[in-house]
């Protein structure tokens, strides 16, 4: 995903909606700068609530760039020195380097120095106020080529060193990292697995409505459904749904804001909040959103971002020693004139049999249970 980690705000405790053993229950609580939703079949709601809240809070303490003592903050402020980090952080950072390669650099958590030059949030605020685009370097202008040339090398995966044996890492030369998206994918997977260990027969975990992990099937025996909406439309407008199989994870990345302002006199390029790490410029996005389903949330996060920015051709999946594709995720692309395209991103690109357009749904299949910006979960 393209979003950031949590903001440093005080949050109320989780809202426990139902607490009945061996029945369906739902729970929501704020964390990671967004909302965490659980829909669970079986087990003790109170036990799982406490355990999942503790798990997510621990991850936030480790991986939030807004926490003064997190592993991420300590890496970002260590001035190139080695930093002892939690083994979970070390494993996450090792995956980051692999996933940058898999997506041809389109997914890159090391983009933070470039993002600070563009300051998308500041540009949007200035646009709303009628002042035009604003960046952290010069109001109402875009970063100059010299400024981009200076910081773009900091996005190289070579700026991140990871030493798993010593559980330590370092960022060289002023590089900075933001683990927001991949942290949500990892947390959704681990929360789902935790529910399974605590006795859940089935569960759906959603973090920010765009990072979703499934366990088992719904109480009626059908797969979990996740609605996909057009990110440029209203939250109540959705295009259809995908079925999320047991132990699979989903990520949606989207250009929710669209083009904000011109960044070239000939209108050849438009500023949006999605920056291409390869060029340091706003991505030339053809699709409005990309949804990927695969066996783990971290990979899904990277692939959905990579496909949004670089298209399917940007994704280079690893192969086994026999030459087979090691992972075969399915993808849903929501794009302008092309509408919705559903298909695998294997070499043979066989269509995914998981997409159900809105027009196929009956009235009883209607509204989603947990609505969000890019996708929504439905418990019924």
UniProtKB/TrEMBL annotation:
UniProt key word Lipoprotein: yes
EC numbers for this chain: 2.7.1.180
Residue numbers spanned by region Disordered: 358-380
Keywords from the named record: FAD, Flavoprotein, Lipoprotein, Magnesium, Metal-binding, Transferase
Cofactor section: Mg(2+)
Regions of compositional bias (Polar residues) in chain numbering: 371-380
Catalytic activity: L-threonyl-[protein] + FAD = FMN-L-threonyl-[protein] + AMP + H(+)
InterPro entries xref list: ApbE, ApbE-like_sf
Name assigned to this protein: FAD:protein FMN transferase
Organism: Schaalia radingae
Lineage: Bacteria, Bacillati, Actinomycetota, Actinomycetes, Actinomycetales
């Amino acid at each position: 995903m393209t979003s950031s980690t949590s903001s440093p705000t005080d949050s109320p405790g989780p809202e426990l909606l139902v607490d009945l053993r061996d029945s369906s229950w739902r729970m929501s609580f704020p964390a990671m700068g967004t909302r965490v939703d659980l829909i669970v079949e079986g087990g003790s709601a109170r036990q799982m609530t406490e355990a999942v809240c503790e798990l997510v809070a621990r991850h936030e303490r480790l991986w939030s760039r807004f926490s003064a003592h997190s592993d991420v903050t300590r890496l970002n402020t260590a001035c190139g020195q080695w930093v002892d980090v939690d083994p979970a952080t070390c494993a996450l950072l090792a995956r980051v380097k692999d996933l940058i390669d898999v997506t041809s650099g389109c997914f890159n958590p090391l983009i933070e120095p470039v993002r600070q030059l563009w300051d998308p949030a500041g540009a949007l605020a200035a646009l709303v106020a009628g002042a035009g685009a604003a960046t952290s370097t010069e109001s109402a202008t875009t970063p100059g080529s010299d400024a981009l040339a200076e910081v773009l090398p900091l996005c190289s995966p070579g700026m991140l060193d990871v030493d798993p044996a010593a559980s330590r890492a370092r960022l060289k030369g002023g590089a900075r990292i933001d683990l927001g998206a991949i942290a949500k994918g990892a947390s959704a997977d681990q929360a789902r697995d935790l529910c399974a260990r605590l006795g859940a027969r089935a569960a759906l975990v959603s973090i920010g409505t765009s990072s979703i992990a499934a366990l088992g099937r719904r109480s009626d025996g059908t797969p979990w459904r996740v609605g996909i909406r057009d990110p440029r439309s209203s939250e109540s407008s959705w295009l259809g749904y995908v079925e999320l199989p047991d132990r699979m994870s989903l990520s949606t990345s989207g250009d929710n804001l669209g083009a904000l302002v011109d960044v070239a006199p000939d209108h050849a390029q438009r500023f949006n909040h999605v920056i291409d790490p390869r060029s340091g410029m706003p991505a030339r996005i053809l699709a409005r959103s990309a949804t990927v389903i695969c066996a783990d949330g971290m990979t899904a996060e990277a692939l959905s971002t990579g496909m949004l920015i670089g298209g399917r051709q940007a994704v280079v999946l690893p192969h086994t020693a026999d030459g087979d594709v090691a992972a075969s995720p399915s993808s849903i692309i929501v794009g302008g004139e092309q509408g919705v395209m559903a298909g695998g991103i294997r070499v043979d690109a066989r269509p995914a049999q998981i997409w159900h357009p809105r027009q196929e749904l009956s009235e009883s299949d209607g509204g989603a249970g947990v609505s969000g910006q890019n996708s929504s979960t439905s418990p019924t």
